[in-house]
Write a structure and sequence with these properties.
Shape: globular
Helix content: 25-40%
Structural class: alpha/beta
Length: 286
Amino acid sequence: MIEIKNLKKTYGNFVAIEDFNLQLEEGKTYGILARINSGTTTIFNILCNYLLKDEGEVLIDKKTPENARDLIYICPKMEFYIGYTLRKILTFIAKFNKEFDENYALKLCDDFKIDLDKKLNPEENVSTYTIFKTIVTICMNKKYTLLNKPEVGVSSLEIRKLSDLLLKKTKENKSTTIIHSKNVNHFFTHVDKIIIIKDGKVFLFEDKKDLKERVYSISGSLELINDAIKDKHVIAIKTLKNYSKLKIAYIMAKTKDEARIHSNREISIKEIYQAITSSERRIYNE
C-alpha cells in the first residue's frame, strides 16, 4: 500500500503540492488526470526517492521512499545516457538492477522496431525515447510501476500496443500500476480507479465504473442550475461554449438509478476531467 499524508513540496516561492493526501491499494491500476504543473511529476519523483519532500509522510508498504527503492520504479530522464546506444543502455540497466528482464526488453524493442544500435537522442526522436522508457519501466518488474505521460510523441497504434502490453504485464505480476496520462481512450481503458488532481490536491478519487455510471449533467440558466443542484453532489460547473448565460453542472449521483433518471447520455471520463479542471468554482465535497 502507498500512503501519502499532508505532503508538501515547494520550489522557491512556487508551491507544487500542499496538503496532498492519497492512499493506494495493492494490485490495482490507477489513472491520474491532471493539468501541467499540477504536481504529479513531483509526487512521482518523491515516491521514487528522486526528490525530497518538504513536509508530510510518504510510506510504501510502511517503508519510506529511501528504503523502498526495490519496490517502486519510474524511468528517470536519461540525459546521462546520451551518446550511448540503446542496446548498451539496456546492458547498463540490467547490470545494476537484478529484477530487470533484459531479454524481454530486447524482444519488446524488436516488436516496436526500435533500432537498438542507434545512440540515445531524445530531441531527435521523441517517439522512440518515450517507448524505450516505457519498455524499461515495464521490464523492471517492480511491485509498484509508475508511468508519467507515456503517450508523448507516440502514435495511436503504438499507444494501443503499449496499453495492452502494460495490462498483460500488470496481470502477470499482480503489480500496482499508476499512470499519469491524458490519453483516456487507451491507457485508461483497463484502470480500476480514476484520480483527478487540481491545484496540487486530490480533487476526485473514484472507481472508474462508478464514475461513468453515476455522473450526469444538467444545463440551463444560472437560476435553473442553482435550483436543480440543491442538496446534490456537484463536482463541476462551467459556462456552455458560445452561450455566456447558460451553465452546465456535473453531478455525482448517490445511486446509478438517480443518474439514469436525470441523464440521457453517458459522460466520458475525459469530459468529466475537462469539466473539473475548467470549473468556475471548487465545489466537490468528499
